[in-house]
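stage 2 :: seqdesign
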């Protein structure tokens, strides 16, 4: 066994020990005083071994990806590869979601009292709802919003309002939307990696982007959809700064960045990943001007309609500490959140990040490797800032999906690809079959 592979295994074992510590310590704390507010620390889940209609499909998809994924990624033409990644990602995500059955796994996920769909009926007059949005954030306020509606800017809820307006109302369509859009995040990451680094790295990362344990939470949580919007914003920015239709791609990137921060307050930190793209991409200013022009559109529209982002965030901070955020102990979650991250990115990504870090040195042997390492490091930095902020105590298995997808390309640096893919698949299958997750 060569030294690099041995170090990879050490990194994976250390990550597994972190998860084990989070489980044992978290279980003790939860049994003592219930302050973690989760059923199976560190995940918002409950222990419930089960199989379901998606089980056979999930096993088949995993086996097919391990057997054929690396070779297909190496030889398919680029555009068919992107479509294949999207299709395989949907197959993997749908099969995992359906392990819990159609209602519990998909149609019912976004209909509970703390989710978005119960609020759709209160948006008959959208401008009026936006003007009054901040008045219903605090617990105890008249007709206060459910946790997720209150915890996000109204762009998240408006997505499901607009789906309802075009005849795609209800939990089934909402879940289908989140999975269909959310699985495009892998395609966006591949586009960005190919544009900033090189195609060979993107191809080597492709099977890992499909078979990520994160798919457990992409199907079905709205954060999978948020991750895709943010990922396409970054991908289009990468194209713009590398000179590919800089005006159009820059403007569209800005629009999506604007939408991103109106989907989730915490996604302002995607600016760290965007900064890495600009740093690695080019010194051209023109694409950035177009991106800025696109970015201001969404805030201008929401502000004109009566919603003030900063006021919403200010009130949300109070709401956060009114609820579980004021009870959950920072001293546990500041490191247990990282255990959640291990569970969504898998052991292969931990090993890949270990290999990515040395690529950041000033004069690496391969500039493409350094650019990919920079992208991965930026995502890790954004995640750590979110962690230290104390505004992400628990539930980060879904909240951090938009950052986690940018850690997955680090797997391009791995050797022994099929073995690592097996580890990724087994982890996802175990989580989905042993636990009932909250998303």
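stage 2 :: out
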């Amino acid at each position: 066994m060569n030294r690099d592979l041995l170090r990879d295994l050490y990194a994976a074992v250390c990550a597994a020990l972190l998860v084990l510590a989070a489980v044992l310590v978290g279980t003790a704390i939860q049994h003592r005083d219930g302050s973690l507010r989760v059923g199976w620390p560190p995940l918002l889940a409950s222990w419930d071994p089960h199989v379901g209609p998606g089980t056979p499909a999930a096993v088949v998809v995993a086996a097919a990806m391990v057997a054929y994924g690396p070779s297909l990624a190496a030889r398919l033409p680029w555009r068919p590869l992107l479509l294949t990644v999207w299709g395989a990602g949907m197959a993997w995500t749908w099969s995992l979601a359906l392990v819990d059955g159609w209602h519990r796994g998909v149609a019912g996920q976004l209909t509970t009292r703390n989710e978005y769909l119960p609020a759709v009926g209160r948006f008959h007059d959208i401008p009026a709802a936006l003007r009054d949005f901040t008045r219903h954030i605090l617990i105890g306020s008249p007709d206060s919003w459910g946790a997720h509606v209150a915890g996000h800017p109204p762009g998240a809820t408006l997505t499901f309002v607009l789906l309802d307006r075009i005849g795609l109302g209800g939990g089934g369509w909402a879940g289908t939307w989140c999975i269909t859009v959310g699985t495009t995040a892998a395609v966006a990451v591949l586009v960005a990696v190919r544009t900033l680094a090189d195609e060979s790295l993107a191809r080597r990362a492709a099977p890992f982007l499909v078979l990520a344990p994160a798919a457990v939470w992409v199907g079905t949580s709205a954060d999978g959809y948020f991750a895709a919007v943010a990922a396409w914003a970054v991908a289009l920015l990468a194209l713009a700064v590398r000179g590919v239709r800089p005006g159009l791609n820059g403007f569209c990137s800005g629009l999506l960045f604007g939408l991103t921060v109106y989907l989730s307050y915490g996604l302002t930190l995607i600016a760290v990943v965007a900064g890495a793209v600009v740093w690695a991409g080019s010194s051209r200013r023109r694409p950035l001007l177009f991106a800025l022009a696109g970015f201001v559109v969404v805030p201008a529209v929401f502000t004109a309609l009566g919603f003030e982002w900063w006021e919403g965030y200010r009130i949300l901070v109070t709401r956060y500490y009114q609820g579980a955020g004021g009870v959950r102990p920072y001293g546990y979650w500041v490191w247990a959140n990282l255990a959640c991250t291990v569970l969504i990115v898998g052991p292969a990504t931990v090993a890949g990040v270990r290999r990515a870090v040395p690529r950041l040195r000033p004069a690496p042997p391969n500039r493409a490797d350094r650019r990919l390492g920079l992208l991965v490091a930026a995502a890790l930095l954004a995640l750590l800032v979110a962690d230290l902020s104390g505004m992400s105590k628990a539930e980060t298995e879904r909240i951090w999906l938009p950052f986690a997808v940018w850690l997955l390309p680090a797997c391009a640096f791995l050797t022994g690809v099929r073995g690592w893919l097996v580890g990724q698949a087994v982890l996802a299958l175990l989580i989905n079959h042993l636990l009932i997750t909250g998303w």
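stage 3 :: structure notes
- The chain has a mean pLDDT of 96.
- The longest helix spans residues 3-33.
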